[in-house]
């Protein structure tokens, strides 16, 4: 028993020696102004916010992660980090880098993630900047104010999976992306890209997510996504698209999210979505859509949400969804809906499914301001739907509530005071606060002889009879 315990203890000591040596080496070789800690597979070095103006001369040989964010680094020379055979992650975000020497990252054979984001003075990268980074999987070039990317820059990165290059100044999709057979995610949003050409995404056969939102895209060429057969998420929202070719998304049979919101589209064509049987989320909001073609959504049998809000739709035909259409949620608010019989199917769907809400009516006038869910459709003698406006004309509706007698008397008194008031000359009336309106009224009365000198007996008789008539009318209203 004692022998077994001794052997076990010996094993623990022997296995723990390498780790103990690694912990000691990590602490001893830690650069000044940095903090080093031992992690599962090696040493983590943190030099962020350390006020560094140049890269430290030596790092622990066991380093697997180095963080140099938010310093004042301006230049990376040849083999800037020496030889670090275990390094997997290197972050240089939020520095002042303006130039990176070709070969700066030599000596980092296992580097898998490189972050250079928010180096606004970088602007240009040499074609050989990433030479020898054959295992790099993630590259972050966001917010570096890059105008272009050399065609051969990414050719040295056969293992690249994810590229973040948003917030740059590209006017076209970088040609360096072509042929990246293993790229799965490309983030190119918030730039100045004006078009997606037929060759822009050539060879990206494993691309699963592409973000081009918030650029200046005016055109998507036919066949632009022809090589992207496994694409799942495509974001083209907040661009300048006014139209799309019929086969813009042809072949995207695995697409699950398509965002076209915030563009200038004025219609929805049936041909756009022919191949998108797997689509789950479709955003068409914040456009100028006034017309949806019949059968436009009929192939989208798995759609979970359709956003058509903030457009110019007055009507949406059920024929746009048939046949056999199933939809999770439908968003239709902020459209000038005409709630006539053409939307009766939608009202019934709202009641039955609860998946559509907030459809305010703009017309006809009888239901303006109401939500479609509160609109009542009638039936004619032959069973046809009757529009709400026609219903209001043919059915009785409760009249206005009786006004108090005091209000009625005051109105008659006001009328009498106007009729019994002494005539005012047109010139004098035109100068009063009422202006042209009062002058016109005075002219009309005087031209008919009201208050004239030759009509005094008639005028006096009228002035005596009108109060009596008013009293009888008020009495009759009170009796009703």
From TrEMBL:
Residues 1-22 form the signal peptide. Transmembrane segments: none annotated. Gene3D superfamilies: Ribonuclease Inhibitor. It is found in: Secreted, Extracellular space, Extracellular matrix. Keywords: Extracellular matrix, Glycoprotein, Leucine-rich repeat, Proteoglycan, Repeat, Secreted, Sensory transduction, Signal, Vision. GO terms for biological process: visual perception. GO terms for molecular function: signaling receptor activity. SUPFAM superfamilies: L domain-like. The keyword Secreted applies. InterPro entries: Cys-rich_flank_reg_C, Leu-rich_rpt, Leu-rich_rpt_typical-subtyp, LRR_dom_sf, LRR_TM_domain-containing. Pfam families: LRR_8 (PF13855). GO terms for cellular component: dendrite; membrane raft; perikaryon; plasma membrane; postsynapse; side of membrane. Residues 335-386 form the LRRCT domain. The keyword Transferase does not apply. Belongs to the small leucine-rich proteoglycan (SLRP) family. SLRP class IV subfamily. PANTHER family: ANTIGEN BSP, PUTATIVE-RELATED, INSULIN LIKE GROWTH FACTOR BINDING PROTEIN ACID LABILE SUBUNIT. This is Nyctalopin. It comes from Macaca mulatta. The lineage of its organism: Eukaryota, Metazoa, Chordata, Craniata, Vertebrata. The gene is NYX.
């Amino acid at each position: 028993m004692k022998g077994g315990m001794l052997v076990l203890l010996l094993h623990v000591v022997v296995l723990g020696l390498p780790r103990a040596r690694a912990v000691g080496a990590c602490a001893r070789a830690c650069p000044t102004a940095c903090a080093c800690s031992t992690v599962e597979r090696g040493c983590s070095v943190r030099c962020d916010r350390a006020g560094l103006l140049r890269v430290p001369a030596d790092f622990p040989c066991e380093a697997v992660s180095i963080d140099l964010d938010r310093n004042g680094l301006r230049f990376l020379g040849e083999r800037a980090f020496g030889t670090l055979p275990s390094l997997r992650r290197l972050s240089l975000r939020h520095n002042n880098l303006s130039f990176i020497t070709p070969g700066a990252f030599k000596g980092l054979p296992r580097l898998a993630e490189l972050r250079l984001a928010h180096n606004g003075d970088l602007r240009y990268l040499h074609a050989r900047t990433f030479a020898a980074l054959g295992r790099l999987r993630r590259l972050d070039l966001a917010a570096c104010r890059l105008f272009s990317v050399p065609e051969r820059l990414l050719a040295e990165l056969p293992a690249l999976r994810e590229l973040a290059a948003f917030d740059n100044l590209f006017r076209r999709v970088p040609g360096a992306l072509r042929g990246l057979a293993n790229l799965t995610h490309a983030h190119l949003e918030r730039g100045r890209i004006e078009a997606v050409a037929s060759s822009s995404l050539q060879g990206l056969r494993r691309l699963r997510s592409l973000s081009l939102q918030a650029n200046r895209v005016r055109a998507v060429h036919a066949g632009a996504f022809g090589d992207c057969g496994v694409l799942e998420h495509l974001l083209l929202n907040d661009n300048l698209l006014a139209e799309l070719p019929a086969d813009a998304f042809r072949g995207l049979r695995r697409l699950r999210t398509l965002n076209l919101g915030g563009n200038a589209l004025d219609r929805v064509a049936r041909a756009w979505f022919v191949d998108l049987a797997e689509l789950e989320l479709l955003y068409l909001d914040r456009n100028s859509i006034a017309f949806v073609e019949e059968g436009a959504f009929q192939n989208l049998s798995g759609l979970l949400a359709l956003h058509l809000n903030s457009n110019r739709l007055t009507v949406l035909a059920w024929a746009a969804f048939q046949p056999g259409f199933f939809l999770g949620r439908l968003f239709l608010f902020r459209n000038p809906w005409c709630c006539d019989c053409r939307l009766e199917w939608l009202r019934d769907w709202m009641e039955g499914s609860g998946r559509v809400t907030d459809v305010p009516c703009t017309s006809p006038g009888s239901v303006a301001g109401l939500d479609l869910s509160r609109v009542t459709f009638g039936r004619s003698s032959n069973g046809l739907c009757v529009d709400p406006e026609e219903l209001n004309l043919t059915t009785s509706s409760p009249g206005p509530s009786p006004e108090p007698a005091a209000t009625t008397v005051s109105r008659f008194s006001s009328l009498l005071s106007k009729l019994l008031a002494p005539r005012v000359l047109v010139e004098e009336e035109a100068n009063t606060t009422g202006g042209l309106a009062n002058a016109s009224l005075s002219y009309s009365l005087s031209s008919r002889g009201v208050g004239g000198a030759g009509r005094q007996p008639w005028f006096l008789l009228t002035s005596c009879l009108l109060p009596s008539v008013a009293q009888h009318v008020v009495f009759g209203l009170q009796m009703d």
